[in-house]
Amino acid sequence: TAAARGHGLANTLAAEMLVRARAAGASEFRLEVLTRNHVAIKVYERIGMRPLRRLRVLAWRPDDDTPQPDPAALTSTAPADLVLNHFNALHPVAAAWQREPASLLSSDGCEGLALVEQDQLHAYAIVSADPTQRRILDFAAADNSSADALLARLQAISSSLVSVNEPAESPLTNAFARAGFHDADEQHEMVIDL
Fold first, then answer.
1. Which residues is 125 bridged to in the sheet?
2. Cβ-based neighbours of 44, under 8 Å, separated by 6 or more
3. N or C: which terminal CB in the chain sees fewer CB atoms within 10 Å?
4. What predicted TM-score, i.e. pTM, was given to this entire model?
5. At 91, phi and psi to the nearest 5?
6. DSSP class per residue in 60-127
7. Please, which residues have CB within 8 angstroms of residue 151's CB and are 6 or more apart in sequence?
8. How far apart are CA 44 and CA 15, in angstroms?
9. What is the spatial distance between Cα 4 and Cα 12, in angstroms, rounded to a whole number?
10. Where on the phi/psi map is residue 8: left (φ > 0), alpha (ψ -120 to 50), or beta?
11. What phi, psi does 90 have (nearest 5°)?
C-alpha cells in the first residue's frame, strides 16, 4: 500500500529472499522483472543482482487478413514427452527458468502440440489448453521453416496467443515477427551468484 512505501521493506524482503535461497543450497538466483518497473530493478541491483538478458513478451491477435492454415497437421503429444525427449535438441539458446524442464514438467492445464512430418518431430509448443486465451509456455523448433509452420498452425486454432519470456537473442523471435506477433512487454532476467 501507499503507506508502506519508502520504509525500505522491499530492500529487506529482497535481502531475505537471497538468505533463504542460500539456506536452501542454491548457487545462483534468477528472477524476471518488467523493464518498466524501475523501482524494483533498483532494489534488485542494491542486493547485487545484475541484468543478464532481455526477455520478450510477444502477443498476437488475428486480423481480417490472417490466413488460416490446416490445423490438422498438429499432433497432440504429452508435454512431458516433448520436454524429456526433445527439449535440448530444439532450443537454440538457454531457456528462462519458467521454460526450463523442471518448470514445464510441473505445469498443469497444458497440452503439447507437435509438428511431425514423415515420423520426424520438427517443432513443438507446450500451450495452455484454453484456445480463447492461449499462452505459449514453451516453443521449440529445428529450423525457421518449422517454426513458421508451427506458429501458423497454432494461430489457426487460437483466438489469441501470448508467449512470455522468449529470450531476445533467440533466433525463434524472428519467426514470431514473421507471424505477426508484436512486443507486448519486456522483462529483464536478473541474476546473482550466491
1. 113, 139
2. 14, 31, 33, 190
3. N
4. 0.84
5. -105, 110
6. E---TT-----GGGEEEE-HHHHHHHHHHHH-SSPPPGGGSHHHHHT--SEEEEEEEETTEEEEEEEE
7. 139, 175, 176, 178, 179
8. 9
9. 13
10. left
11. -110, 5
Question: How far apart are alpha carbons 171 and 152 in whole angstroms?
Answer: 17
Name residues whose C-beta falls within 8 Å of residue 31's C-beta, 6 or more positions apart in sequence. 44, 49, 189, 190
Backbone Cα Rg of the chain: 19
CA 173 distance to own-chain centroid: 11
Instruction: Extract the C-alpha cell encoding 5.
Output: 512505501
Q: What is the pLDDT along the chain (194 residues), one digit of tens a residue?
A: 677 777 788 999 999 999 999 999 999 999 999 999 999 999 999 999 999 999 999 999 887 565 555 555 677 777 888 888 889 899 889 888 888 888 888 888 888 888 888 888 899 999 988 878 899 999 999 999 999 999 998 988 888 999 999 999 998 999 999 999 999 999 999 999 99
* C-alpha grid cell, residue 28: 545462483
Is the distance from CB of 10 to CB of 37 less than 8 angstroms? no
